[in-house]
Write a structure and sequence with these properties.
Number of strands: 16
Distance between the termini: 48 Å
Order of helices and strands: EEHHEEEHEHEEEHHHEHEHEHEEEHE
CATH class of the largest domain: Alpha Beta
Oligomer: single chain
Number of domains: 2
CATH architecture of the largest domain: Alpha-Beta Complex
Low-confidence stretches: 1-7, 12-24
CATH superfamily of the largest domain: Cysteine proteinases
Shape: elongated
Number of helices: 11
CATH topology of the largest domain: Cathepsin B, Chain A
Radius of gyration: 23 Å
Length: 391
């Protein structure tokens, strides 16, 4: 979907104070489908002057995206909608867009749609609903705050006219009280630099003097790459990443369940496999000469939490299949825990799936689901790196 449409939009009625569903007649809200494409396009064009969804975007969102659109109708006329995006593999939803026709504004329909969107998110077992809103739309911001939404950040130059966005979130499970570390977010700028991006976030959480920029991202990649992966540029293994962190003044522990070469099963070329083995053997040789704890064993979520509560920042290897349906290794940095969820920053923002940074910061993942995704390949390789302040 075109990136210019990947933004949350709110018109003047969204949201308003909730009233009865009978607004200037009988108003019915239902799930929209492809049969409503024309009505949604017309509603969009009547509600927004810029940042409009195209017909193509609506078609994608209605048919292929992990999304759900609530359509408000009076008689046979579409008068408003609210669109939700869901994060596969996580318990987080985003209010992607909400709109009400100008002639129906001020009657509470926006508030009704917001309330129904929150209920729909709960039905999908989401514990948080996030959104973006224009920073100059002070009225909408105040109303969101009235409905229990809190500011969680901002995005520069987010909208088509270069206006910034305010990121907001409502906790749909107020009984949970997560222990969240103040971890900065850094988005990987290349498809193969998830390792360096997570390493940068972990180091900066412990030392604010670490500058997060592309120069450091690429330097860390050069230091920790395995040279080859299944295709394209090499990924980063736990040994190279641990060395890079140690050489920058941090204490490091590594936990791997397989003493063999990481990621090698997914590489077909014997020549590439041999190079990967040599690179990793060199990494391990350096590690053994330093004060880096190398442990051959897996950590479960409870044990990762113990390391976190002791002041460490865990970086965990997962298979990206459960989130992105791609069979490739991927690194996440852990930012917090509660009794049911583990929270992570994901350095990858899948813009092709209409995602933004709002979707990948402090993502809540059920503990049991995280246990299943925290492994890679046919041999279920597991790896956790614990970054700590040097004692």
């Amino acid at each position: 979907m075109p990136s210019e449409n990947a933004s949350h939009k709110v018109n003047q009625d969204s949201p308003a104070t909730p009233l009865a569903t009978a607004v200037r007649g009988e108003t019915v809200v239902r799930k929209a489908g492809l049969q409503d494409l024309e009505a949604l396009v017309n509603l969009e064009e009547s509600s927004f002057a810029i940042d409009r969804f195209s017909r193509r975007s609506f078609r994608y969102l209605l048919s292929k995206a992990n999304a759900e659109t609530l359509l408000a109708e009076e008689g046979k006329q579409a008068i408003g909608y609210a669109m939700l995006l869901f994060n596969t593999g996580t318990s987080l939803a985003r209010l992607y867009s909400i709109a009400v026709l100008p002639e129906y504004q001020g009657q509470g329909l926006g508030g009704e749609l917001l309330k129904l969107a929150e209920e729909k998110a709960r039905q999908h077992e989401c514990i948080g609903l996030r959104l973006e809103v224009r920073s100059d739309n002070l009225n909408a911001i105040r109303i969101y705050e009235k409905h229990g939404y809190k500011r969680i950040g901002s995005a520069k130059d987010y909208y088509e006219d270069h206006m910034d966005a305010v990121r907001m979130e409502k906790n749909l499970a107020p009984h949970l009280n997560p222990d969240i570390m103040r971890t900065p977010y850094y988005e990987q700028t290349l498809e193969f630099t998830c390792g360096p991006a997570t390493l940068m976030m972990a180091m900066n959480a412990l030392n604010k003097d670490i500058k997060l920029d592309r120069q450091l991202e690429l330097r860390l990649w050069r230091e920790s790459t395995t040279i080859f992966m299944t295709s394209g540029h090499g990924g980063c293994d736990p040994y190279g990443m641990a060395l890079a962190a140690y050489n920058r003044g941090f204490d490091v522990e590594i936990y791997v369940n397989d003493p063999g070469a990481m990621f090698i099963d997914s590489v077909r070329s014997e020549d590439k496999k041999e190079v990967m083995r040599l690179v990793q053997e060199d990494f391990i040789s350096q590690i053994r000469s330093l004060q880096i704890g190398l442990n051959h064993g897996a950590l479960n979520v409870a044990q990762i939490q113990e390391k976190f509560e002791a002041g460490g920042v865990p970086i965990v290897l997962i298979s990206s299949y459960r989130i992105y349906h791609e069979k490739s290794p991927h690194w996440l940095v852990v930012t917090g825990f509660d009794e049911h969820y583990i929270y992570v920053h994901d350095p990858l923002v899948d813009y092709d799936a209409s995602k933004s940074q709002t979707d990948v910061v402090n993502m809540p993942i059920l503990r049991k689901d995280f246990e299943r995704m925290a492994r890679y390949g046919k041999s279920s390789q597991k790896a956790v790196i614990i970054i700590k302040k040097r004692g």
